[in-house]
Amino acid sequence: MSNPAEKPEVVQLPAEPVSVPSAASRRAALQRVREARDKLTSTSGTRPAFDAELLRQYAQTRLSASYVVMLLVVATGVLFGLWMQPIPAAAWTCGMLCIHAAMIRSCRRFLAEPTSPAATRTWRTRFVVLDLLYGLCWMAILIHPVLDMVTETLMMFLMLLVIAVSSMLAAYLPIAALAATAPVAVAMALSFAMSGSLDNFILAALAIAAEGYFVLLAHRLHSSTFATLEARAEKDALIGELEQAKAISDEARHRAESANVAKSRFLAQMSHELRTPLNAILGFSEVMKSEIFGAHQVAVYKEYSADIHNSGVHLLNLINEILDLSRIEAGRYELNEEAVSLVGIVADCHHLMKLRASSRGITIHEVFEQAMPRLWADERAIRQVVLNLLSNSIKFTPQGGEIWLKAGWTASGGQYLSVKDSGSGIPEDEIPVVLASFGQGSNSIKSAEQGAGLGLPIAKNLIDLHGGTFTLKSKLRIGTEVIVTFPPERVMSALAPMSEDSPPLQPESSVIPDEKRRPRHKPIMSAGTGS
């Protein structure tokens, strides 16, 4: 029997990472697609909105220069009536004025009607045709055979004047400018060239060059106007995006405020619902632990009662920490400020935590500067900060370790508190994590004494309420140091004395004439002087 065919080995290629385009690249791609679509639907290669705006500016320019054009036509008709028969000159003048009137009427109708892509194309064609008729009429009068007696210089001047005026008026519509000026320039160039003299050839070349120059100038004006419209459109789009982003941010802020209010109500309600049965649990467990009504028949019940009481105390402390943090974040934590001694508070907290530290073999050193003035601060808040920092140091310092408590002056005249331990330390990338609410580092997760991750955030927020700074420095396997500073404004010795004069002990009276003759060195009241 033949061996069965071996199955081909299937090798799975590593999946290529999918690159997610950024917001800027997506916006640029969308902009390119929009521009390509607009160019396909536009008659001039630009956006339809730009076509309508350019036509609007063209119409407004035509209307603003209507009297100038009428004056030019009438003056040319009168001048040509002197060299030719008055009737043909008058007929040409009437024809030009009719075309000009049709142009003005069309411009006014265009400005009065609402814009649309189809209407824009129609009006664009109409304006180009009217400008073409305008140019043909000028061509007819400039190459009239009767005007052969007129010098070439005067004809060249009239041609340049007509081309310049027409180019400036139709600059917002380059094809209309070309339609209005090309017949005049070409006809004059042919007229000069057919004469056969060298001077006329030069004039013909100058006519073509002038036409090219004014067409280029009109194109430049059109390009600058188009760039201005693009900049304005981008500015409007940016303003729209900013307004949309502001609306989104306002909506998100309203949702966050609503969620914050809901969270505060939930915490307030849950704190009440949890504290009510918890107080009963703590009370009865303490009674059972203390064996107030008699000893337990089974000794292990006393240990169970102690465990229940300790768990209840831990849960109550956790609820209090959550409520304190929620009040601080909501801005409803009020400081009960008074004159307190920073060294005294730190010494009291050391005394409270000394037994716990001694049970773990940890030595706490005190380094305090003497004769420090009092602080204007909330004693309960500072006590909570010191207890949180000291309990964290004791928790993460191994047996036989050391903790240093320092209090003294800062360089700016404030006061500082430092808690430094020889514990395991915190990785540098985990410092923002442990300062966040419910944040725990890797050492905290591995430790047997895990907390809720609220001690440091509460301490930092309480210091921020006092206007101080909270700095955490740590190195792995070396230790951690937390430095808390209070601004000089909170040091009582830094307060300036009152500048107001104290009221007199006895008001002066104008009815006692002897008071005016009293010597200045003699006090008003001699109480306690013996005199």
TrEMBL record:
Keywords: Kinase, Membrane, Phosphoprotein, Transferase, Transmembrane, Transmembrane helix, Two-component regulatory system. The keyword Phosphoprotein applies. Residues 1-23, 496-531 are annotated as: Disordered. Residues 269-490 form the Histidine kinase domain. Its EC number is 2.7.13.3. InterPro entries: HATPase_C_sf, HATPase_dom, His_kinase_dom, HisK_dim/P_dom, HisK_dim/P_sf, Sensor_HK_Regulatory, Sig_transdc_His_kin-like_C. One of its GO terms (molecular function) is phosphorelay sensor kinase activity. Coiled coil: none annotated. It comes from the Bacteria. It catalyses: ATP + protein L-histidine = ADP + protein N-phospho-L-histidine. The chain crosses the membrane at residues 65-83, 89-107, 127-147, 153-172. The keyword Transmembrane helix applies. This is histidine kinase. It comes from Bradyrhizobium centrolobii.
